[in-house]
Amino acid sequence: MTSNATTPAQPDMISGAVSVLGLGRMGTALATALLDAGHQTTVWNRTAAKGSALAARGAVPAGTVGDAVQSAPLIITCLLSYDNVRAVLEPNSDALAGRTLVNLTTGTPDDAAAVADWATAAGIDYLDGAMMAVPQTVGTPGAFFLYSGSESAFQTHRRTLDRLATSHYVGRDPAAAELWDMALLSTGYAALTGFLHGVALLRTLDVPPTRFLPLAVQWLDGMAHFMPELADEIEKSDYSTPVSPVDMNRAAVDNLIRISTERGVDARVHGPLLDLLERRIADGHPTDSFASIVEVLASVVSHPERRP
Ligand code: NDP
After folding, report:
1. Among 202, 275, 288, 300, which residue's Cβ finds the most Cβ atoms within 10 Å?
2. Which CATH architecture has domain 4-172?
3. CB of residue 106 inside a 6 A radius of ligand 1
4. What residue owns the CA closest to ligand 1's atom 12?
5. Mutate to test the pocket of ligand 1, among 28, 32, 64, 79 (most ligand atoms within 8 A of CB)
């Protein structure tokens, strides 16, 4: 899968050797997708027994990290933490030199930057990755992965990476993929928390969640169609469109909190948004569009005293 390819690669055309280090839930799914695509796949895991099922499907188990590294030009790591990655890889720096390391472990932007610094000093072509997937969706159109760091590593191995999920390269800064991951989590968590609050509100009328669901989905779909307008306004720094002004939204969120509270439903999840809207009004922008809230969110950069 690829975000812009028109002709998907055929499994029998792909045979590049890959080593996968880490065979937890995600690592096993990654190795499985590579095997299914016809890659020669070497696997290593701290607990070796977790590689047995993959070996039965054709994976080559490596006895040591060093053996796994030397078996392929492309090494994929998927361990629990970046600390694990460093502990496993650093003793094998010499063997890794000249190879490509794609680290799909979840971490912070600082974690990614630190591993990238180490890798660069060791002569390793480093690509950091963030997996927007669960084990069941790896290798399906439901998954997409974000990559940042070495652009040449991404281009060289893109066909292989596309077997795992749709690939998106988000920039040369190795920390970028982890930050994009967080931006997407931010988007999703806020929407899902709002849905859960709506479910709790309708529970006061004995409405089951499954009855609420279709309209909630339709509403969220409408919200998604509103997002290009928000993005456009922010890019142009033009918040003069009066369709959804700050003061109107302040009144709506205030109502939402008041009515929820009257019905015994905890509305604190919406308190932060009310606070942002009120700060934008206090800054003298009551008729600016809803998108202008981003200026309040970003204002801690220039006004650290506003840091929550
Ligand atoms: P698992 O708990 O299933 O697997 C963890 C892996 O890390 C195992 O291979 C484990 O080895 C290895 N490991 C843990 N500690 C060490 C250590 N000290 N030294 C060497 N290896 C170690 O985790 P997942 O596969 O679910 O997750 C892996 C990464 O993917 C995490 O960063 C997670 O946040 C991320 N992720 C997970 C998703 C999911 O849905 N599960 C979705 C998106 C990202 P051993 O088998 O020996 O314990």
Report:
1. 288
2. 3-Layer(aba) Sandwich (3.40)
3. yes
4. 79
5. 79
* Half-sphere CA count of 18, side-chain side, radius 13 A: 31
- Kindly give the confidence (pLDDT) of every residue in the chain, 308 residues in length, as a single tens digit, with 9 standing for 90 and above: 444 333 333 333 345 999 999 999 999 999 999 999 999 999 999 999 999 999 999 999 999 999 999 999 999 999 999 999 999 999 999 999 999 999 999 999 999 999 999 999 999 999 999 999 999 999 999 999 999 999 999 999 999 999 999 999 999 999 999 999 999 999 999 999 999 999 999 999 999 999 999 999 999 999 999 999 999 999 999 999 878 999 999 999 999 999 999 999 999 999 999 999 999 999 999 999 999 999 999 986 555 555 55
Is 0.70 topped by the overall pTM? yes
> Options 3.40.50.2000, 1.10.1040.10, 1.20.1510.10, 3.10.20.80; which CATH number does 204-306 get?
1.10.1040.10
Going from the Cα of 107 to the center of ligand 1, the distance in angstroms, rounded, reads: 12
* Binding site membership of 286 for ligand 1 (Cβ less than 6 Å): no
CA angle 98, 102, 108 (to 5 degrees): 125
Range list for CATH 1.10.1040.10 in the chain = 204-306
Distance CA 168, CA 1 (A): 11
CATH 3.40.50.720 residue spans of the chain: 4-172
CB-ligand 1 contact for 79 (6 Å cutoff): yes
**22 Cα: distance to centroid of ligand 1 (angstroms):** 7
Q: Is-contact 128 175, C-beta < 8 A?
A: yes
Tell how far the Cα of 45 is from the centroid of ligand 1, in angstroms: 10
- Which residue type, as a one-letter code, is found at position 224? A
